[in-house]
Amino acid sequence: MPPEPTQYRRVPAARGIRSFFLRRGNSVWIADDHLLSVEFRWFLESYHRFAYRDIQALLLRKTVTGAIVNVLCGFVVTIWFLASLGSAEGFAAGLVPGGLCVFVLVANVLRGPTCDLRIVTAVQSRRLHGLRRLNEARRAIAEIEPFILAAQAELAPAETLVTEQPAPEPQPAAEPQPGAPAP
To answer: How many angstroms separate the CA atoms of 38 and 59, rounded?
Structure first.
């Protein structure tokens, strides 16, 4: 009888970018013993499998990408507003790009700050592209962390990277000998 297929559950926060025109996207899936990251671009798919017991760290870093987009959109909206003060033609010419930038600016602010989430193992460090917003990444970490802790709790002490060792006993200072030069 063939083995039972692995049951996957999608990390709800990991929506990633989905674009009809660019035909690309990302998703993150949870299984009982591993995490699966799926990236697709047009007709190519790549899968990255991370066993929970091999994960050494989840690195979360806030990025400035969202702030840069906000500044650029704010600049375009400001230029559009200043151009519209002078004439009706300026208002009409800047309506589409200005309106689009207002929409992007509001959507970007509502989604929150951007981030970079990486999974570190002994052999690689890979970015999870499906998690680009700080609040989404924090929800995903909260969902993934119990699986990692459960898998790594089963490791024998010899298999762990760091084992508990007693602190070394402090050595008493040597008494200087009479007639010896001072250090």
So the answer is: 19
Each residue of 115-130: pLDDT tens digit?
A: 888 998 888 888 888 8
Q: How do residues 25-58 score in pLDDT, each as one tens digit?
A: 788 888 888 898 888 877 888 888 999 988 888 8
| CATH architecture type of domain 9-63+113-147 | Roll (2.30)
3-state secondary structure at position 38: strand
pTM of the model: 0.69
The rounded distance, in Å, linking the Cα atoms of 171 and 23 is: 66
The residues spanned by each domain of the chain are: 9-63+113-147, 66-109
Question: Assign residue 16 a region: left if phi > 0, alpha if psi is -120 to 50, beta otherwise?
Answer: left
